[in-house]
C-alpha cells in the first residue's frame, strides 16, 4: 500500500517563483559584497554574516508558499540568531593569546565543518517546521515528516546539480565565444558581481521548479528508496558477518587500525539509512519483498553491538590519552548512534507491527542531533575547550609527565583555549613537574611561526611516532618542532592521521643521535633529521630509492644494521660540497638483496 505525498505545490506559484528568484539575486549580491568588497572586516562579524547570508535565504525560498508570513519571518529570524551565535563563536575560538594581551581574531580554520553542521541543523529543523505547518500541529505525523524530509533532500541535491551544470554551460559558452575573439562572456564569468547573483538565482529557481512539481520529486524518491532498500540484505549480511566473526578473531586487530570508532560509526550510519529506505513511512506493508523485510528486522539488531564496540574503543583511547576534539566529535556521534541502536533493537523485537517503533526513534534522534550539533558549535560543548580541560587535568594529576605532555596540541590544535592553557602552565603551578612544564610551555610560546603562508603542524609524538628500538627515547625537543606542509618532510609531521617509524642513529659519529624517519604506508622517502641550535631540527639527508623497500624498515627494526664510512670521497667544488646519490640500478639491486636476505633468515 502506498500513500500520497504529504507535500503539495505552493499556491500562486508564479508570484512565489518571482519572489524566490528575487531572493536568490539579492543573496548573490550580498555574498559578493561580503567577499569582494569586504563589507565586514572583523572576522567575528564576517563569519556570522556569511553563515546567515548563505543559509537563511535558502530557508526563506523553501518556505515561501508553505508557511504563513508571520511563521516564515519567525523561523528565519530564529535561524539567523542561531547562525550568528555559531559564526561568532567559530571565529572567536580561533583567537590566539600569545605574548601580547591583545586578542587577534583569525579566520576560522574549521569554517567548512561549521557550514556542514549548520546545514545539517537547518535541514532537520526545516523539515520539522514544514511538517508541523503542513499538519497544523506542533508534532506532525511521521508520514509527513518522512515525505517532507526526503523532498527537501532531493530538492537540494538536484538544485545543486542544476547550478553546477549551469556554471559549466556558461564556461563552455565563454570558451566558444573566445575561439572567435569575442571575450564579453569570459569577462562576465571572471566577474564575481555577475557569477554570484546568477548562480544563487539559478539555485533558487531550481528549488522552485522542484517544489511546483511534487509528483516528479515523489517518483524520484520512490525509485531511489527501492534501489537503496535492495542494498539492505547485502549490507546486513556483510556487517552481520563481521559482528559474528568478532568473538573468534578478537578485538586486537580492530584496535590496531587506530580508526575503529570511525569505521563502526560509518557502518551504523549505513544501516540506519538503508533500514529507513526499506521501511520508508511504515505504510508499505506487504509491498516490501520478504527478504528485505527480514533483512530490515535483522539489521535493526546490529547497531547495538556496533555502538557498544565503538564506545569501548573510544573509552580505551580516552583512558590512555585523554580527550581530543576528534574523540569528542566521535562521542557526540556515538550518543546519537546509541539512540538509534537501542530504539531499533526494541523495534526489531516488537511483534505488534512491522518495525512500528522506528518512527518515534527517528524523531527522537532528529531532535537529539539538533541539540548535539548546537552544543558542539557553541561554548556549551566546544570540543577544543573540553579537550584542553582533559589534557591539562592529566598533567595536573600526574597521569602524564611534563616530559611527555603534548604541548603542541595546546598551541596548534586547541585554538584560544589551548594557548590560554599554555599561558597558565607557563606560570609554573601545574602538575608535579610544574617547573619543567613551565619551561616547555615558555619555549613553545616563544617559537612563533613564519609568514611564508604554509600551513603548520606539530606532530603528536605519542600517537604518530613509534621509536625503535623500544628502549630508545625520542629527543624532547623534536615533538616541540613545528612543521610545514609541502616542504619535503614526511607526511607524519604534517598530517595528524599519518604515522612514522623513528630510528635514533648517530650517523655522523659526533656522540649525538640523528633521527631517521620512515613513513608507514606511504611513498614518502626516508629522511634523516639533525638537531641544530636551540633544539631546531632540520633535514640533513634523504635515503632515495628506499621509499617502497619494506625489508629495509624490517631489518632496521630488528637492529640488523651497522654504520660504515662511505666508500666514495665527497667532492667539493669552489668550497661547496656536492652530494653524491646512489644510482637507480644499485638501489634496486640493494632492495632485492634485502628481500632475499630477509626471506633466507626467516626460513
UniProtKB/TrEMBL annotation:
<feature type="transmembrane region" description="Helical">
    <location>
        <begin position="230"/>
        <end position="248"/>
    </location>
</feature>
<feature type="transmembrane region" description="Helical">
    <location>
        <begin position="192"/>
        <end position="210"/>
    </location>
</feature>
<feature type="transmembrane region" description="Helical">
    <location>
        <begin position="153"/>
        <end position="180"/>
    </location>
</feature>
<feature type="transmembrane region" description="Helical">
    <location>
        <begin position="113"/>
        <end position="133"/>
    </location>
</feature>
<keyword id="KW-0472">Membrane</keyword>
<feature type="transmembrane region" description="Helical">
    <location>
        <begin position="72"/>
        <end position="92"/>
    </location>
</feature>
<feature type="transmembrane region" description="Helical">
    <location>
        <begin position="47"/>
        <end position="66"/>
    </location>
</feature>
<feature type="transmembrane region" description="Helical">
    <location>
        <begin position="328"/>
        <end position="349"/>
    </location>
</feature>
<feature type="transmembrane region" description="Helical">
    <location>
        <begin position="260"/>
        <end position="279"/>
    </location>
</feature>
<keyword id="KW-0812">Transmembrane</keyword>
<feature type="transmembrane region" description="Helical">
    <location>
        <begin position="17"/>
        <end position="35"/>
    </location>
</feature>
<feature type="transmembrane region" description="Helical">
    <location>
        <begin position="361"/>
        <end position="381"/>
    </location>
</feature>
<protein>
    <submittedName>
        <fullName>DUF4153 domain-containing protein</fullName>
    </submittedName>
</protein>
<dbReference type="InterPro" id="IPR025291">
    <property type="entry name" value="DUF4153"/>
</dbReference>
<dbReference type="Pfam" id="PF13687">
    <property type="entry name" value="DUF4153"/>
</dbReference>
<feature type="transmembrane region" description="Helical">
    <location>
        <begin position="294"/>
        <end position="316"/>
    </location>
</feature>
<keyword id="KW-1133">Transmembrane helix</keyword>
Amino acid at each position: 500500500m502506498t500513500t500520497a505525498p504529504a507535500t503539495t505545490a505552493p499556491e500562486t506559484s508564479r508570484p512565489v517563483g518571482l519572489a524566490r528568484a528575487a531572493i536568490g539575486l539579492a543573496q548573490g549580491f550580498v555574498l559578493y559584497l561580503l567577499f569582494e568588497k569586504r563589507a565586514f572586516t572583523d572576522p567575528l562579524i564576517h563569519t556570522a554574516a556569511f553563515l546567515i547570508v548563505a543559509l537563511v535565504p535558502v530557508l526563506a525560498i523553501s518556505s515561501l508558499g508553505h508557511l504563513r508570513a508571520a511563521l516564515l519571518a519567525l523561523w528565519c529570524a530564529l535561524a539567523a540568531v542561531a547562525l550568528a551565535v555559531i559564526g561568532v563563536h567559530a571565529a572567536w575560538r580561533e583567537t590566539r593569546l600569545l605574548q601580547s594581551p591583545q586578542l587577534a581574531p583569525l579566520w576560522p580554520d574549521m569554517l567548512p565543518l561549521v557550514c556542514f553542521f549548520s546545514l545539517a541543523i537547518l535541514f532537520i529543523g526545516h523539515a520539522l517546521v514544514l511538517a508541523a505547518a503542513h499538519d497544523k500541529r506542533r508534532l506532525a505525523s511521521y508520514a509527513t515528516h518522512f515525505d517532507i524530509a526526503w523532498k527537501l533532500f532531493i530538492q537540494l541535491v538536484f538544485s545543486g546539480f542544476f547550478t553546477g551544470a549551469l556554471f559549466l554551460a556558461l564556461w563552455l559558452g565563454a570558451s566558444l565565444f573566445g575561439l572567435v575573439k569575442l571575450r564579453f562572456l569570459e569577462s562576465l564569468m571572471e566577474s564575481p558581481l555577475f557569477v554570484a547573483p546568477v548562480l544563487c538565482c539559478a539555485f533558487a529557481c531550481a528549488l522552485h521548479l522542484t517544489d511546483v512539481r511534487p509528483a516528479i520529486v515523489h517518483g524520484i524518491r520512490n525509485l531511489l528508496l527501492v534501489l537503496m532498500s535492495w542494498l539492505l540484505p547485502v549490507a546486513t549480511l556483510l556487517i552481520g558477518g563481521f559482528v559474528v566473526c568478532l568473538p573468534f578473531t578478537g578485538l586486537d586487530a580492530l584496535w590496531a587500525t587506530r580508526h575503529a570508532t570511525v569505521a563502526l560509526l560509518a557502518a551504523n550510519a549505513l544501516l540506519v539509512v538503508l533500514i529507513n529506505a526499506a521501511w520508508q513511512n511504515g505504510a508499505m506493508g506487504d509491498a516490501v519483498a520478504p527478504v528485505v523485510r527480514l533483512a530490515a528486522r535483522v539489521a535493526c539488531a546490529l547497531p547495538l553491538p556496533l555502538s557498544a564496540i565503538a564506545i569501548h574503543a573510544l573509552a580505551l583511547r580516552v583512558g590512555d590519552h585523554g580527550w581530543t576534539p576528534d574523540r569528542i566529535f566521535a562521542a557526540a556521534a556515538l550518543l546519537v548512534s546509541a539512540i538509534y541502536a537501542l530504539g531499533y533493537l526494541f523495534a526489531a523485537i516488537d511483534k505488534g507491527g512491522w518495525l512500528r517503533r522506528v518512527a518515534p526513534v527517528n524523531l527522537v534522534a532528529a531532535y537529539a542531533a539538533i541539540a548535539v550539533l548546537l552544543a558542539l558549535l557553541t561554548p556549551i560543548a566546544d570540543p577544543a575547550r573540553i579537550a584542553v580541560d582533559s589534557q591539562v587535568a592529566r598533567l595536573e594529576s600526574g597521569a602524564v609527565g611534563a616530559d611527555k605532555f603534548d604541548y603542541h596540541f595546546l598551541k596548534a590544535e586547541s585554538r584560544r583555549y589551548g594557548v590560554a592553557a599554555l599561558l597558565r602552565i607557563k606560570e609554573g603551578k601545574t602538575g608535579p613537574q610544574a617547573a619543567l612544564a613551565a619551561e616547555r610551555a615558555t619555549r613553545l610560546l616563544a617559537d612563533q611561526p613564519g609568514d611564508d603562508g604554509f600551513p603548520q603542524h606539530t606532530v603528536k609524538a605519542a600517537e604518530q611516532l613509534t621509536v625503535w628500538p623500544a628502549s630508545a627515547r625520542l629527543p624532547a625537543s623534536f615533538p616541540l618542532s613545528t612543521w610545514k606542509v609541502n616542504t619535503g618532510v614526511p607526511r607524519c609531521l604534517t598530517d595528524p592521521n599519518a604515522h612514522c617509524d623513528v630510528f635514533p642513529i648517530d650517523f655522523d659519529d659526533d656522540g649525538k643521535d640523528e633521527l631517521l624517519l620512515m613513513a608507514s604506508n606511504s611513498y614518502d622517502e626516508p629522511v634523516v633529521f639533525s638537531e641544530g641550535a636551540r633544539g631546531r631540527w632540520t633535514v640533513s639527508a634523504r635515503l632515495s630509492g628506499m621509499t617502497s623497500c619494506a625489508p629495509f624498515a624490517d631489518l632496521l627494526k630488528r637492529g640488523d644494521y651497522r654504520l660504515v664510512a662511505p666508500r666514495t670521497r665527497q667532492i667539493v667544488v669552489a668550497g661547496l660540497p656536492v652530494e653524491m646519490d646512489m644510482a637507480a640500478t644499485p638501489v634496486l639491486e640493494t632492495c632485492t638483496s634485502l628481500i632475499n636476505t630477509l626471506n633466507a633468515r626467516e626460513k
